[in-house]
Design a protein that fits this description.
Length: 161
């Protein structure tokens, strides 16, 4: 699958990492890539561009990627609270993964990442988008993957988590 029409926003304070992710996306056929070194610039881009997917780092300053996710998932503050968000971060601890999930991240990918891993996350976002859930405490993609036949090594033991 080529992602020629996909419009991606990369948010990472590390220019080398943005360049690497841009190169990988280019290999997938995705040439509509916007870059932001911080959350303020990312929000500015989102206000004027039609973006299909955000790929963001967690640790940035003065505002981190998780705070941006929380802001974007707030329907009262965000122009597109349904936008798919991939958290691409060096934080791999289960508590961090749960925190990102609970903030509304669509997909989670740990650095260092492979092109294949990113490709699979984008395929899922495009071909099998998850429904969104709204409760008093949460707005974001359903953490359950409905009708998922995936049995590979990244499958969680408890599919309900």
């Amino acid at each position: 699958m080529a992602f020629t029409k996909l419009r991606v926003l990369l948010v990472d304070d590390n220019a080398a990492m943005r360049g690497l992710v841009r190169a990988v996306l280019g290999a997938f056929g995705c040439d509509n890539v916007f870059e932001a070194a911080d959350v303020k610039r990312a929000l500015g881009i989102l206000s004027v561009e039609q973006i299909d997917v955000i790929i963001t780092d967690w640790k940035m300053s003065p505002v981190d990627g998780l705070a941006m996710v929380r802001h974007l998932r707030n329907p009262e503050k965000s122009s597109n609270p349904f936008i798919p968000i991939v958290m691409l971060t060096a934080y791999a601890e289960p508590s961090r993964v749960r925190e990102a999930r609970d903030a509304g991240v669509t997909e989670f990918l740990v650095k260092p990442f492979s092109a294949e891993q990113l490709y699979k996350r984008l395929q899922v976002i495009v071909n099998r988008p998850r429904p969104f859930v709204r409760t008093k405490m949460f707005f974001g993609p359903d953490r359950r993957r409905l009708n998922n036949e995936y049995e590979g090594p990244e499958r969680r033991e408890d599919a309900a988590l």
